[in-house]
Amino acid sequence: MSISDILLTIDGAELAERVSDNSISAGTQDNPTGLGTYNTSGVYITALSGNSIATNKQKHPLLSLPTYGTRINMSTFGSNIDYTAYLYEISLKSVFAGQTKYLPHEYVIYLPGTETPTDPPQAFGNYAYEVFTPDIEIQYTFSFSLVNNSDGKTIGYFFWDVFVQKSD
């Protein structure tokens, strides 16, 4: 049984612009805004693995993985330099009701708390997840926040769905 890595990447600058011009709601942590398809959101998001890619340009974003488990991380197209995407929740819906489990691993990143350099930095928890499943196809819902690294302010809360199919 092998484990595959999935990297979720988001166009943080475009998403921040869409929230700024009110074409996308900022959402809340309890009620994040869905990114849906690129045609409806105008924000590009991808899920990448070693042998597969899924984007929100697809009607049914699908990753095909020859694996029993996955490790999931998130970043922005700019490598989290201007904006950081923090993955805070994953929910799973299985086609086959097998025994699925996932393990969150928290790590903390410190960003400026305010524009005043002497103020203490603000801690943001980010997660990497490991998911183990015997299921054939799983719908993952990834919930994340986007933070402006220059001032540490949260731009908004969002989610995106992608399907992962086990291949042989």
Layout of SSEs?
Blueprint: E1 3-10, H1 12-20, E2 33-34, H2 38-41, E3 45-49, E4 52-55, E5 62-65, E6 69-76, E7 83-94, E8 101-111, E9 122-132, E10 137-148, E11 154-166
Parallel strand pairs: 1-6, 2-11, 5-11
Antiparallel strand pairs: 1-3, 3-4, 6-9, 7-10, 8-9, 10-11
The pLDDT mean sits at: 77
State the oligomer.
single chain
What is the straight-line distance between the termini?
11 Å
Question: Would you list the SSEs in sequence order as H and E?
Answer: EHEHEEEEEEEEE
What level of helicity do the residues show? under 10%
Low-confidence stretches: none
Structural class: mainly beta
DSSP, total strands: 11
Strand arrangement within the widest β-sheet reads 4-3-1-6-9-8
| Main sheet record | 6 strands, mixed
Give the strand content: over 45%
Shape: globular
Radius of gyration: 16 Å
Q: List the total number of helices.
A: 2
